[in-house]
């Protein structure tokens, strides 16, 4: 058990995020590996205005095989910076973003396996009244066994709001098809981007938890990720485009058709279209998708079948 931050030694940097840095760390006594996410105070706002210590409590309560486990939360403690540090389960296979950057596309079998686990994770989070709001490849992590889990929830929610403000103000450049890390808004549903048009409510409601309907936004993001895994680039705009915020917003909210690979199987196509339904009221729910044929392919007797673990890029 990690009792204090001094029990841990830093081995390497695993990732730089918007909110802070993630280190690979080792527990000095047990030699167990963990990931340590250190967040500066000025980037923390709190889930829907909930104070940070409550947010940390929510994180610690999450306990599912489909969600990256947070073992402990510490105040950084220094007087200049009262941010927090999260001690998390170490996911040695990196993120789906890393896998896509390396392999570009995945087979339908593997995508089905990923989709099923992400849906199980969302089913768990939603039952705990947590809306993830930032499902995207870099927040889906893979462990040494090749199992994908949802990471960066709650905390990342905060970061989305920050990015949103930036992009609404200045309009940034988004490097989507090369999996640049600026794609946060790219996975957002129409009703999250433009609540006035798509939710029928005022934009001021945006940061409030609107109850059950918020969950539909996470389903949209699953659809974008699943399609991206088969296409090899961000699906809602052409592979050659480097869109600004306005182009991206138009594509998400008003884009007429989804670029669907011709070779995709009927269950794949149907799954994606059920996720990418612009009207959140008509969109499939997580529970419905867990019953969908695409994630219930059965027949695991095919020995040549690839698994996500076969795609894992060894971390340096
Ligand atoms: P941010 O809020 O900054 O996006 P994330 O929690 O998504 O932070 O972490 C950023 C990156 O760090 C991830 O994309 C992943 O590459 C790496 N990372 C995060 N958590 C872990 C973990 N538990 N195990 C291994 N790598 C991790
Ligand atoms: Mg992240």
TrEMBL record:
Give the matching PROSITE patterns.
PROTEIN_KINASE_ATP, PROTEIN_KINASE_DOM, PROTEIN_KINASE_ST
Official protein name in the record: mitogen-activated protein kinase kinase
Protein kinase domain sequence ranges: 8-295
**What EC number(s) would the UniProt record show?**
2.7.12.2
Family per similarity comment: Belongs to the protein kinase superfamily. STE Ser/Thr protein kinase family. MAP kinase kinase subfamily.
Top-rank EC class of the record's enzyme? transferase
Q: Which CDD domains match?
A: PKc_MAPKK_plant_like (cd06623)
Q: Which organism is it from?
A: Stylosanthes scabra
The answer to whether UniProt assigns keyword Hydrolase to this entry is: no
- Reaction catalysed by this enzyme: L-threonyl-[protein] + ATP = O-phospho-L-threonyl-[protein] + ADP + H(+); L-tyrosyl-[protein] + ATP = O-phospho-L-tyrosyl-[protein] + ADP + H(+); L-seryl-[protein] + ATP = O-phospho-L-seryl-[protein] + ADP + H(+)
Entries under Gene3D superfamilies matching the protein: Phosphorylase Kinase, domain 1 (3.30.200.20), Transferase(Phosphotransferase) domain 1 (1.10.510.10)
Binding of ATP: at which residues? 37
UniProt keyword annotation of ATP-binding present: yes
A Pfam family reported for this protein in Swiss-Prot or TrEMBL: Pkinase
Q: Which UniProt keywords apply?
A: ATP-binding, Kinase, Nucleotide-binding, Serine/threonine-protein kinase, Transferase
Per its UniProt record, what InterPro entries does this chain match? Kinase-like_dom_sf (IPR011009), Prot_kinase_dom (IPR000719), Protein_kinase_ATP_BS (IPR017441), Ser/Thr_kinase_AS (IPR008271)
């Amino acid at each position: 058990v990690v009792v204090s931050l001094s029990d841990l030694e830093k081995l390497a940097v695993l990732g730089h995020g918007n909110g802070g840095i993630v280190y690979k760390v080792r527990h000095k006594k047990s030699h167990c590996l963990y990931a340590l996410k250190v967040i500066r105070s000025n980037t923390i706002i709190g889930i829907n205005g909930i104070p940070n210590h409550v947010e940390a409590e929510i994180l610690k309560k999450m306990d599912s095989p489909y969600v990256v486990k947070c073992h402990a939360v510490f105040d950084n403690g220094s007087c200049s910076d009262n941010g927090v540090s999260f001690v998390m389960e170490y996911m040695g296979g990196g993120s789906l973003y890393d896998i896509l950057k390396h392999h570009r596309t995945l087979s339908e079998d593997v995508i089905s396996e990923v989709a099923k686990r992400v849906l199980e994770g969302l089913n768990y989070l939603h039952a705990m009244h947590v809306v993830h709001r930032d499902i995207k490849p870099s927040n889906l992590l893979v462990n040494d066994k090749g199992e994908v889990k949802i990471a960066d929830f709650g905390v990342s929610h905060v970061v989305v709001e920050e990015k949103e403000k930036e992009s609404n103000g200045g309009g940034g450049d988004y490097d989507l098809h090369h999996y640049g890390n600026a794609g946060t808004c790219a996975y957002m549903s129409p009703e999250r981007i433009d609540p006035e048009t798509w939710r029928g409510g005022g934009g001021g409601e945006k940061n409030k938890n609107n109850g059950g309907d918020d969950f539909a936004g996470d389903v949209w993001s699953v659809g974008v990720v699943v399609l991206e895994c088969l296409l090899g680039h961000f699906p809602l705009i052409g592979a050659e485009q480097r869109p600004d915020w306005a182009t991206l917003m138009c594509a998400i909210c008003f884009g007429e058709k989804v670029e669907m690979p011709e070779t995709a199987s009927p269950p794949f196509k149907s799954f994606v279209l059920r996720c990418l339904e612009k009207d959140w009221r008509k969109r499939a729910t997580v529970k419905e998708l867990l019953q969908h044929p695409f994630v219930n392919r059965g027949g695991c007797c095919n020995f040549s079948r690839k698994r996500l673990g076969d795609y894992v890029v060894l971390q340096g």
